[in-house]
What we know:
Helix content: 40-55%
Structural class: alpha/beta
Largest sheet: 11 strands, mixed
Radius of gyration: 18 Å
Number of domains: 1
Order of helices and strands: EHEHHEEHEHEHEHEHEEHEHHH
Oligomer: single chain
CATH superfamily: Indigoidine synthase domain
Amino acid sequence: MQIDPQVQEALEMGSGVVALESSVIAQGLPYPHNLNSALNCHEIIRDLGAVPATIAIIDGVIKVGLERKELEMLARGDNLKKAGLRDLPFLMANGLSGGTTVASTIYLARQAGIDVISTGGIGGVHKGGVDISADLYMLGEIDCILVAAGAKYFLDQGATLELLESLGVLTVGYGTDKWPAFYVNATRFPLPWQVDNPAEIASLYRYKKDLKIKQALLVCNPIPVQYALKEEDLQNWEIIARGGVKEAEVKGAEVTPRTLAALAEVSSGATVQANLILLENNARLAARIALAIGNF
């Protein structure tokens, strides 16, 4: 593992550091939106006084904190791997490059000593209940704070929330008592707790660590209502997108990125724009939480 010197210095000084996943760059968004999003999130975090640490595997080396040229490589790469936790040994052994998923980013961030991770939306239980994202199980195993806009829209939201509860993941809404769903500001599913400022989240995390509770703290930060997409539109787009993915016989880890790409196409880019907004919104909150933790 190579930790960027700025990230290492911030960790040693107890300053705020925010880890960011890179699968959204390598697989989740089209170029140049993926690069612009990564650079904007970095800028937002720095402007607030924290340090961004995008995590990826490049030429077989795990890197915590990427330079612009590395972000560009991930954004432009055509044959990059989706680097889940299970994939890391193979990628390292064969000198390959890839974007880390939420699950592998959580694991690697904690290995590096970073508490706060920011993403767009987590994986979850797919409709039908057969495919369940490793993100959920990692949240049930790793003590961290993950900021996300709920789960990807096209997943089974109720089943995802129930599994998080079963895994013992403390799930709170930021300024809301309803579970958000990526492009959707609020669903019908209630959340057990609501928090309204970063200091509250830092306090929760402190007490959770004092109790030695190993599961994550998931902070659900909904996309701002003025940028949220209409569920009626999303339902129609999802039917078309799912049909294309099914026809292509896409399986396993490729289902989510292919579905996102299909949604972007049928929505004429509306889902991409919403994704960019919620990524930046989450990075902003994550930076504030990281700084609040440093104040304890």
